[in-house]
């Protein structure tokens, strides 16, 4: 890509300078925070909700030719398999994130995973970059790809090689190209590390391509990602959108459908719902709203809602 075009794409998301928090509201990028409501809606309701789901022992397919397989582990975690390449994205098998209870179990256990060639981490938030989950992998990943500023966090996890990318940069491994794409989110793991990058990934393997958006709100960059990288399959987040202020950093089902339209992808696989109560909507609401909105737009036949731990071949 010409450097002039690359520079024109970078300002899609503003990089605000960090400042000292003045109140608890400043601990979230939207400032939509009330301690009592936060505790009641997210912590207490999670504690009182019986944990659902079950770990499966997946029958991972033996792929031939140009086939690929996608297994949703839960939340934003996916195993994507090509004929000679296994890619793991944002693995998280935890039943707890600090005080936040997981309300639906991961679809499989770490020991069920095959040897991982590429580990992709979209950003440093604890629900996406969960160190203990990476340490639990039976085979240490050969290569981990992540945004700029995250590499120092990945040391000591047994990863053989760490690759950091800026937006629109591409890493090539065998027949696979991995490109870090822009997102409308933020990358800090704590209050003092706003320099860490964030984004999504497009994997291109021979003639197949899969886009994992990471965490993001809706923004104009989806049309640019679609125009430049032309993903066939779009894995898009649909949860953590209530209250409305959260839509500054997350998408609801309707915004995700707009992103799918902009990307011009063939298939839409939803994620980022059901496992952790990260916002105020009911955990069951996002897929229901997605189905209704897709019916209205007459594209329900292009939506694939996966069951955790069950591989899909395409």
Q: What distance separates the N and C termini? A: 29 Å
The SSE order reads HHEEEEEEHEEEEEEHEHEHE
Mean pLDDT, all residues: 89
Q: What is the domain tally?
A: 1
CATH architecture: 4-Layer Sandwich
Using only C-alpha atoms, the radius of gyration works out to: 18 Å
Give the biggest beta sheet. Answer: 7 strands, mixed
The helix tally amounts to 6
Helix-residue proportion: 10-25%
Question: Structural class of the secondary structure composition?
Answer: alpha/beta
Percentage beta strand: 15-25%
The first-level CATH class is given as Alpha Beta
Detailed description of the structure:
The structure is a single chain. The protein has 314 residues and is of the alpha/beta class. The chain has one domain (32-313): Ribonuclease Z/Hydroxyacylglutathione hydrolase-like (Metallo-beta-lactamase, Chain A). Helices cover 18% and strands 21% of the residues. It has 6 helices and 15 strands. The chain has helices spanning 3-9, 35-48, 131-135, 221-229, 253-263, 285-296; strands spanning 69-74, 77-82, 85-89, 96-97, 100-101, 118-120, 143-147, 161-165, 170-173, 176-181, 200-205, 208-212, 233-237, 267-271, 312-313. The strands form 3 sheets. A 7-stranded mixed β-sheet has the order 8-7-6-3-2-1-15, with no helix packed on it. Strands 9-10-11-12-13-14 form a 6-stranded mixed β-sheet, covered by helices on one side. Strands 4-5 form a two-stranded antiparallel sheet. Helix 4 links the parallel strand 12 (208-212) and strand 13. Helix 4 (221-229) runs parallel beside helix 5. The longest helix is centred in the first third of the chain and has 14 residues, at 35-48.
């Amino acid at each position: 890509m010409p450097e002039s075009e690359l520079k024109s794409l970078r300002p899609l998301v503003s990089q605000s300078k960090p400042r000292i928090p003045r109140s608890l509201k400043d601990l979230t990028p939207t400032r939509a925070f009330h301690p009592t409501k936060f505790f009641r809606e997210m912590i207490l309701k999670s504690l009182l909700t019986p944990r659902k789901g079950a770990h499966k022992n997946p029958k991972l397919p033996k792929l031939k030719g140009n086939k690929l397989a996608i297994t949703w582990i839960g939340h934003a975690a996916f195993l994507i398999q090509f004929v000679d390449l296994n890619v793991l994205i944002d693995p998280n098998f935890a039943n707890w994130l600090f005080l936040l209870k997981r309300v639906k179990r991961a679809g499989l256990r770490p020991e069920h995973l095959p040897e991982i060639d590429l580990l992709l981490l979209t950003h440093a938030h604890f629900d996406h970059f969960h160190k203990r989950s990476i340490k639990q992998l039976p085979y240490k990943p050969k290569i981990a790809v992540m945004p700029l500023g995250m590499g120092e966090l990945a040391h000591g996890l047994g990863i053989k090689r760490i690759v950091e990318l800026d937006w629109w940069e591409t890493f090539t491994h065998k027949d696979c190209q991995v490109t870090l794409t822009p997102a409308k989110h933020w990358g800090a793991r704590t209050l003092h590390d706003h320099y860490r990058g964030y984004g999504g990934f497009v994997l291109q393997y021979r003639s197949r391509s899969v886009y994992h958006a990471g965490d993001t709100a809706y923004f104009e960059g989806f049309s640019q990602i679609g125009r430049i990288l032309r993903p066939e399959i779009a894995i898009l987040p649909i949860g953590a959108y209530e209250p409305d202020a959260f839509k500054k950093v997350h998408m609801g089902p309707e915004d995700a459908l707009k992103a799918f339209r902009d990307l011009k992808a063939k298939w839409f696989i939803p994620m980022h719902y059901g496992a952790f109560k990260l916002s105020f909507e009911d955990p069951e609401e996002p897929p229901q709203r997605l189905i209704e909105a897709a019916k209205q737009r007459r594209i329900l036949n292009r939506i694939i809602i996966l069951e955790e731990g069950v591989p899909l071949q395409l």
